[in-house]
Amino acid sequence: MLTRDIKDGLNYKKDGNKGFETVITRLQMQTYVVPVNYEYSKRKNGDEYGWGNCRYDIAENFWGEKLCRSAYKRRPEESLNRIIKHITKALPKMDEEELKALLKG
């Protein structure tokens, strides 16, 4: 769903519910929802304008249910090690200890 549709459907309007950004951020951090695209409003002539509107989907639709469910069986330490391994492949010069400190926040 697009951000504007989620906000409309859940009454995150001027005089409605508050804290949409907090809620959507928490859902992303817990990987329940993932941003999959940004879409822009279009003028009559087809030109895009304005801020992008994020399209979200649930993680199972994006990555597959089997992959998402398998992660629930992992210990947090195992997940951290998998993340570090993945990042160090992409950024081999990054110090692993600094990366661990960054990820543990």
Topology (elements, then pairings):
Elements: H1 3-9, H2 20-29, E1 33-42, E2 48-58, H3 59-63, H4 65-71, H5 76-90, H6 96-104
Antiparallel strand pairs: 1-2
* Class by SSE composition: alpha+beta
Apparent shape: extended
Q: What is the helix fraction of residues, given as a range?
A: 40-55%
Report how far apart the termini are: 30 Å
Number of DSSP strand runs:
2
Strand order of the largest sheet: 1-2
Q: How many discrete domains? A: 2
The total of helices stands at 6
- The whole-number mean of residue pLDDT values reads 90
What does this structure look like?
With 105 residues, this protein is an alpha+beta fold. It has two domains: 1-64, no CATH class; 74-105, no CATH class. 50% of the residues lie in helices and 20% in strands. Strands 1-2 form a two-stranded antiparallel sheet. The mean pLDDT is 90.
What attributes does this structure have?
single chain; 105 residues; alpha+beta; 2 domains; two-stranded antiparallel ribbon; 2 strands; extended
Structure summarized in a few sentences:
With 105 residues, this protein is of the alpha+beta class.
